[in-house]
Amino acid sequence: MKIIAFYLPQFHSFPENDGWWGKGFTEWTNTKKGKPNFRGHYQPHTPLNEHYYDLVKEPEVLQTQIDLAKEYGVDGFCFYHYWFAHGKKLMEKPIERILDDKTLNIPFCLCWANENWSRRWDGSEQSVLIAQDYGDKQDRKNHIEYLIKFFLDKRYLKDEKGQPILLIYKPQLIENLDMLLSEWREAVIAAGFPGVCFVCQYPQNDRNIRDKFDHWIDFEPAATTSIPGDDFMRALKISPKYAVEVGITKALQLLKIRTFKKYSYTDAVKASVNRPMESEREWVGAFTGWDNTARRGKNSIVYDGSTPEIFENYVKKQLKKSIQSKQEGIVFINAWNEWAEGAHLEPDEKYGFRYLEALKNARIAVQESYE
């Protein structure tokens, strides 16, 4: 059984963010801005004991997070990795510290967040701060050589063949995708591995893209919400109520009756669970909740009604789905600490440790049912 939680490293300041947003900007700056859009709306999300930690200034935080993850059943972290042309990196300090400090002992892998760096933190995707230029052959070589340093670490997650697992967030954005995958595979083999396990993260309904990868992830809730727009009849078969809900929500926004999108967490979870696995190459996902009001204000996307109890049952079913599909129970959780998007396992003021406890309970229950 493998439960992997996505991990956002933007909890420390760095020069680029200081210049774009003001001195000392971190993910907490956004998180604190959250205000309710409707009665009963849970905003802002506040970390337990109001501990707005700094991953650089408070070096003990990473160890505390690792201890917490292990205690409650998280097998590893998938760190977002930000690399642009000519070796430009952002938010690299936490993952480079993980690499350098072997006492921070938790399995991990990387996900290349290969989008433009834009003002999406406040909902302004069109304002590009750093364009994602994929560079030339030398740039690609420099990038994979950097990644291989992580692959060589004993803690780095490998598949059953011993291949390091590398996620790419939106591969459809890469014009020379075939060339990049081929060059990187050759470089990783030359480094002594049998190959590299390429994994597509973001919902990819284009089989021409998806089939280039060893696996793809049901990145929730985006994976479930994308289905009605791609294939409404398929969505109706999976969950009629949720499919109609997605359609009505989009209509309300288009008609400017409501500026934000509001979905039922319960309905989204049912749709996620009901969706049949298409292939053994598909890895299931789950999400604690989703609400990016802190970033987008009145134009946010909200999955309302998440509770630890619903989440616990959700994780149980996703673990069983993975196992029944001849996998070992691989589930990617969104997320460990996406605080400004309302998706976090980390304890908060409202629920304390209950989401972590729910995850642990779900894992134990499934383990016992298969013994």
Give a structural overview.
By secondary structure, this protein is of the alpha/beta class. The chain is 39% helix and 19% strand. The protein has 14 helices and 16 strands. The chain has helices at 15-21, 27-31, 60-71, 93-100, 137-151, 177-190, 207-210, 222-230, 232-238, 240-254, 265-274, 293-296, 308-324, 354-369, and strands spanning 2-7, 76-84, 88-90, 108-112, 117-119, 124-130, 165-168, 197-200, 215-217, 261-264, 282-287, 290-291, 301-304, 330-334, 337-338, 343-344. The strands form 4 sheets. An 8-stranded parallel barrel has the order 1-2-4-7-8-9-11-14. Strand 15 (337-338) and strand 16 form a beta hairpin. Helix 9 (232-238) crosses helix 10 (240-254). The longest helix has 17 residues, at 308-324. It is globular, with a radius of gyration of 20 Å. The chain starts with a strand and ends with a helix. The mean pLDDT is 93.
Walk across the major sheet and give the strand order.
1-2-4-7-8-9-11-14
Report the count of strand segments: 16
- Main beta sheet: strand number and arrangement? 8 strands, parallel, barrel
Which bin fits the share of residues in helices?
25-40%
Indicate the proportion of strand residues.
Answer: 15-25%
Number of helical segments?
14
Query: Class by helix and strand content?
Result: alpha/beta
Strand-and-helix sequence, N→C?
A: EHHHEEHEEEHEHEHEHHHEHEEHEHEEEH
Mean pLDDT: 93
| Separation, N- and C-terminal Cα atoms | 13 Å
> Rounded to an integer, what's the Rg over CA atoms?
20 Å
**Large-scale geometry:** globular
Low-pLDDT residue intervals, each spanning 5 or more residues = none
